């Protein structure tokens, strides 16, 4: 993806005057994009906490730096997977389907991804180095970069929810939208998969979370009904955040 040479500005879409050729024809065919908001809520919370979490590690405390660094690596991996599926699947579909007057919204999403990607490219090697040393200089630089990442990502997710999701609801079908989420669970390491599910559900709107869970395979629905992901996340949070944030 070509990176922009300047910071993009938010596009303000206007409603199309005609239905696009691939728009869903019945309510059951339309995407329910609230699952994206559930995912965004989890990213917002964890990445909001990340700069302070890193900055609180004492100089040279390699044991604590390893715990926090592993947590950071997990969420950078999840973010990369989330954005890669959008880059490879969602943006091409929307470029094909969206009315011409809404094309700038899709362009903005791609440009914001490039800004986030550039920050992640700077953060990843620094985080890997800091995990091994706990050095204060790397820690402080990393915390500053993570704050910039959080700010860029929140701007992107806010724009995506306000401007992009309404387009997706209009021009995609429900099965096409659900295809976007396929494979996401497999990207999560098995030893923290329940905890990650619990994190995404922790602050989610209950109705949106119930809708999202309804599309999961039966074994996952049973585990969630039993409350195992929430309990796993509470244990994970006590180790990483040193408090029960779930």
List the helices and strands and how they pair.
Elements: H1 34-55, H2 62-97, H3 103-133, H4 136-171, H5 174-181, H6 193-202, H7 206-214, H8 218-225, H9 228-240
Helix pairs in contact: 1-2, 1-4, 1-6, 1-7, 2-3, 3-4, 6-9
Walkthrough of the structure:
- The chain has 246 residues and is mostly helical.
- It is 70% helix and 0% strand.
- It is globular, with a radius of gyration of 19 Å.
- The two termini are 36 Å apart.
- The model is unreliable at 1-21 (pLDDT under 50).
- What kind of sheet is the major sheet? none
CATH class type = Mainly Alpha
CATH architecture: Up-down Bundle
Based on Cα principal axes, name the global outline: globular
Secondary-structure element order, as H and E?
A: HHHHHHHHH
- Provide the number of structural domains: 1
Detail the poorly predicted runs. Answer: 1-21
Number of strands: 0
What is the typical, i.e. mean, pLDDT? 87
Rounded to an integer, what's the Rg over CA atoms?
19 Å
Q: In CATH terms, what is the fold-level topology?
A: Four Helix Bundle (Hemerythrin (Met), subunit A)
Provide the helix percentage.
over 70%
